[in-house]
Amino acid sequence: xxxxxxxxxxxxxxxxxxxxxxxxxxxxxxxxxxxxxxxxxxxxxxxxxxxxxxxxxxxxxxxxxxxxxxxxxxxxxxxxxxxxxxxxxxxxxxxxxxxxxxxxxxxxxxxxxxxxxxxxxxxxxxxxxxxxxxxxxxxxxxxxxxxxxxxxxxxxxxxxxxxxxxxxxxxxxxxxxxxxxxxxxxxxxxxxxxxxxxxxxxxxxxxxxxxxxxxxxxxxxxxxxxxxxxxxxxxxxxxxxxxxxxxxxxxxxxxxxxxxxxxxxxxxxxxxxxxxxxxxxxxxxxxxxxxxxxxxxxxxxxxxxxxxxxxxxxxxxxxxxxxxxxxxxxxxxxxxxxxxxxxxxxxxxxxxxxxxxxxxxxxxxxxxxxxxxxxxxxxxxxxxxxxxxxxxxxxxxxxxxxxxxxxxxxxxxxxxxxxxxxxxxxxxxxxxxxxxxxxxxxxxxxxxxxxxxxxxxxxxxxxxxxxxxxxxxxxxxxxxxxxxxxxxxxxxx
Amino acid sequence: xxxxxxxxxxxxxxxxxxxxxxxxxxxxxxxxxxxxxxxxxxxxxxxxxxxxxxxxxxxxxxxxxxxxxxxxxxxxxxxxxxxxxxxxxxxx
Lengths: 493, 92
What we know:
The complex is a heterodimer. By secondary structure, chain A is of the alpha/beta class.
């Protein structure tokens, strides 16, 4: 198969990580405000709980290749930039292979609690493959939560079967509730044996999405709504989307940035439609937050991601490697339960610590954005040069809150990449724009200097400390040294 | 009388379940249409189903070798704009 990839193969690396960080309100996890019965269901789900995502892992199995619609941010030639799609390098799995892979990962990564089917096409446009995978897993691996994400077109017809397989989380991508907006996002759908285009197509898709949402909520299945923020197309409109889906009972809204580069070969990429800046994304998330729980830690995973959000261990679990693994799942379940329990204890301890002390700075002190390098477990444990992404926290007199993640090119990979080094560091510094401090376990002299010149203070003094505590401590130091006095605001902005 | 799938096919499987004649064959390097089975959906549907769901422009041809979904018809990207973008990327 000759792939007509625009440019070269650099696209493969693009959404390598899992979902990224960024959710929730002041000091609270975004799930804290949920009703108890929903909290109970999502407390160990890395995609739904900002806190959980530091500890619990997820995986996607790519069993669903076909799609029944076209989105302008997606190129079916290899993968989709926005919606969790595998690149051409990854393997399409049969349901049997997917079950085997899931059990192998569950045994080897006991903190993996969630199995999702998210593509590379639309899972519900591949009902046999998707449901066979769910059916077998719910029998063989009852300790794994099953999730599915869909564009919603085939959802109403699938709701009964989803309920039967004990799927308790469904994600619907809803980018609009107005067909005129939809016509700018979806060029066509396949519906009732025809390809339908334009406003008419968008109208059908929107009706199916909304109907599916209502049917799921009626059956007590949790629904998260994903929206891709496309500046100038649906940005303002997403506030209405948020209000409507919340009104119908979606428990979480995840607004994700459009990823759009010409080399992706997508309509938006080629036509020059830009993605939102971190500020635009954050502002819109804040604007929608009044209406519902917003999620900010999504990393826009590939459809074959494995591991913690923000990391991808898929390479360790390719089919040829799994063939040789001998899995005793009964034994694995015992180990998994013990690991889950110890994580639950760590989370409870974290919660207890946080409820302990307040910020102890003057109420008028201005807020500060800080970037953090972490490889998981909720602590600052990553070398600056090894970070592929940074988590951004806002410290203010009311506490520390997670704002989002910023992707950065890894400038130091330990081999001879000197030629690229400077430009990659520059890219990282640009990605950290707006942050005043970067917390990491270690950092080299060269990047230290460059960061200082860019007005970002590197800080390696809080290695291995819990993120939110360290951010609070640095904020207090900054306040005490007079760096955050009101007169400084203009200078900082 | 038969449609055919050519090498730009990306093996996305979308056409296989919608064919009323089971004429789509999973194959490497790309899916194929069994000419003996293909009816071009006559008698079943107004339009050929494989070509109605296929996301790749130019991947399915009619019996005269003409693309059922010509360039620009599915993505909305004007072919000349696509050519420009590719040239720009290659010039980098």
